[in-house]
Amino acid sequence: MTFKAKFAGALLATVMSTTALSGAFAADDTIKIGVLHSLSGTMAISETTLKDVMLMLVEEQNKKGGVLGKKLEAVVVDPASDWPLFAEKARQLISQDKVAAVFGCWTSSSRKSVLPVFEELNSILFYPVQYEGEESSRNIFYTGAAPNQQAIPAVDYLAESEGVQRWVLAGTDYVYPQTTNKILKAYLMSKGVAESDIMVNYTPFGHSDWQTIVSDIKKFGSAGKKTAVVSTINGDANVPFYKELGNQGIKAEDIPVVAFSVGEEELAGLDTKPLVGHLAAWNYFQSVDAEVNADFIKEWKAFTKNDKRVTNDPMEAAYIGFNAWVKAVEAAGTTDTDKVLDSIIGVSVPNLSGGTSTVMPNHHITKPVLIGEIQADGQFEIVQETPAVVGDEWSDYLPDSKNLISDWRKPMSCGNFNVASGKCGGKGS
Amino acid sequence: MTLKSFLQALLACLILSFAAPSFAQSDPKPLIDALAKADFNEAEKLLGQIAATGDARVVPALNAFAEGDLYFRKSDNLVFIAKAAGSGFELIDPLTGAAAGQAAKNAVTKIKVNNNLRRVIRSAMGGLTLLSPDRAVRLQAAEAVLRSPSPENLDLVEAALAKETDGEVKARMEEARAVSVLSSDRSIDEKRSAIETIKNLGGRNSLGILNSVSGSIEVGLKGDLDAAIASIESEQQLWDMAQNVWYGLSLGSVLLLAAIGLAITFGVMGIINMAHGEMVMLGAYSTFVVQEVIRDNAPNLFDWSLAIALPVAFLVTGAVGLVIERGVIRFLYGRPLETLLATWGVSLILQQTIRSIFGPTNQEVGNPSWMSGSFPVGGMTITWNRMWIILFSMSIFVALLVVLKKSAFGLNMRAVTQNRRMASSMGIKTPWVDAFTFALGSGIAGIAGVALSQIDNVSPNLGQSYIIDSFMVVVFGGVGNLWGTLVGALSLGVLNKFLEPSVGAVLGKILVLVLIILFIQKRPRGLFALKGRAVEA
Q1: Residue B64: domain span
Q2: Residue B35 to residues A159, A202, A374, B63: CA-CA distances in angstroms?
Q3: Which domains does chain A have, with CATH numbers?
Q4: What is the pLDDT of residue B206?
Q5: Min CA distance, B135 vs chain A (Å)?
Q6: Are the beta carbons of A204 and B465 closer than 8 angstroms?
Q7: What is the pLDDT of residues B422-468, one digit of tens each?
Q8: Is residue B1, in this structure, part of any structural domain at all?
Q9: Which residues of chain B are within 8 Å of residue A222 when distances are taken between CB atoms?
Q10: To probe the interface with B, which of A222, A239, A370 has the most B CB atoms within 10 Å?
């Protein structure tokens, strides 16, 4: 009885949605999605890969018959690592090309630049990179890691399994490292670490002369307590940093470095033999032993026609975001923004580490945290894996945001609900 | 009750002391095989037991474990040392070292190792190899014990010390003994002399060891310990100064490398060459290509790859420079603004070309063995790559000076820059001198790229990070003066490195920039201003 009713309901819904759709999109038979990644300029090194992943995912989806019976079409634009240009290109994608959703951005600055555009024009952005949190927009889905899905578990691992008592927080001087380090410092101090046992150090973008800082780390580490470096050093600056560590003879056994921005792709330009044992925390490593991952890697190598290409965490985040969107669109039966925003919450899709990731009401997703040690072949050996963790947009360790939560389901529909005052609003967007 | 427990403890001790020797002769094989199914904590315990057997035959197995070469066979859970051979593995018995056949890749599983286990292994290996007949191995073992002090190694060190005859090894073992004594429960007098030994050893490691026991040390020794720490710290402070100067020279030499090509194109010829950074980048990519060819065809030549890359990079970038001068710049002499825009465009074209050919990601340029690692000088560490780069930039500087001052081409070049019309009337083909001067500057930038590929990323953006610094150095040192470029680069480097420890890298860079602006206000022509007719021309 119930089954029949459900079946009939589903059938009816499908029929209705297809008729509605064929009415609305009678003119064209493809669904467009936007790909907003820098293909030139400083960020091209990281973002070009994600553009390729999106093209691969679209191709695969079209082989499976597309979405809602239509082919997908990727509209690729190049915002050239220029933050204001991101907003301009986003506007062009939404208003001119009429894309149903956009997949893109890497740096927080670019995301902050496009955020008002997506809210104004009511479209959807899937953001695939780990970030500092402290944000939740109605129109953005954050499929990368929030600090509690990366930084905090990594620090816990070091404290427990390596007995680290003294911490160097080293980062590039911009918003992601600054906020992450603020959260980590508050977290460590709440765990009873003295302020004198924490050293915070910032360097400019693209810093290449690490001699002084590495020798400062050595000095800081000779206080008789086990010391570790938590690195939020961005992109290119990592290579000279690790080279200097290796050359000055700092071994992972003495002072381990755990990094949040170093993945397989970054290690590809580096001889990793002196770095064996240094760590990284991500939600995915290429070395994950799962069938779905093996398939993905095979597909990726075939798509890029390059047997040496590696996979990394933001690629997995893009994969999850894309599949969640496809599933939500199929559930809603339309690509209409408001309907998809409703239907995507609670959607579960397989991730590449063998489990599933669910889109939560705060527009973040659940995923496991993996800690890996760098190996001589440039891959990571996973030394710890947690169960799936829910991304926490407003950090519980910062006084400004500890009372805030986000829930985009009706009737709350609020990105920064203050549980202390019971009102929507306060810090942030 | 208490007597009973005391007796029990005594009995346990007796049994242990009897058990220990028999255990020592026991076979470590089952312990090693147990590693197959152990998690990290169990593996740590097993390692302790393996080390306690005192059996030196386990050393290769431990070594392989630390290197991640220890595998177990899925069919029978036996542990082997595995070496990759073709598509599978060559299995080696962990104790005897005898070959144990082949295995397919999926028939064996790697035994995971983490930092903590590597530390335990290092300490255990130190203890086990102290009595090795090989002098180098004994020295290494003493170093290992010195770096990871543990009271368990104390007896082993003392036994080894009694037999040791070699002076240097003996001294190192004395130090290893001292650090082990400090964390043991030996008498106060013994510890006091241990503190003295460590104090004389000096250096950051000793400081760490002394600091680590300062919480647990006997009250009577607190004074000695604090005095020793203070003494090492004050000595270390002096070395820190020396280290800063060295770092400054090293940074200065990198600046010099980046700027020296520009000192010719901008300094001597007056061309605002925004594509200078891309010449450096092309040099670095030439190195990459040379290394790839060597890796594929003659891997044993790898240590020579940089020497081979030098002429290649010089010729490639020199040729590109020649094309740029003939194709673009020669039409723009005397129009600095247009030159700036045109060369900026050229730089973007070159970047995107490289990006299209090699892709946007970093390319791996390897360090030859003689450029890796470091050596200690007193209380400071000098890394080989930085030292070679300092020497290299100085030799380029000298070579360039010789070309400019002693060669016929240099003479022509100087003649053209000082008085173009006069030079022309003397029969010098000034357009070609211009072209080859620009090619020389570009070629030198390419050579700099070979050196910079050793310390920085080889990506299409490599050049951009050096262009501002290069102009800064040339303007600060005085346009048109090579010596000015040298002094400017080195003084900016040292200044930067002295600011960095106190104000941080970000603020340090800003302060240097502010100082340069103020300096240029006072002396618009830089440190070494050219005098005479050339200035007015």
Answers
A1: 16-118
A2: 25, 42, 22, 14
A3: 2-146+289-366 (3.40.50.2300), 148-288+372-390 (3.40.50.2300)
A4: 84
A5: 23
A6: no
A7: 999 999 999 999 999 999 999 999 999 999 999 888 888 889 889 98
A8: no
A9: 204-205, 207-208, 211
A10: A222
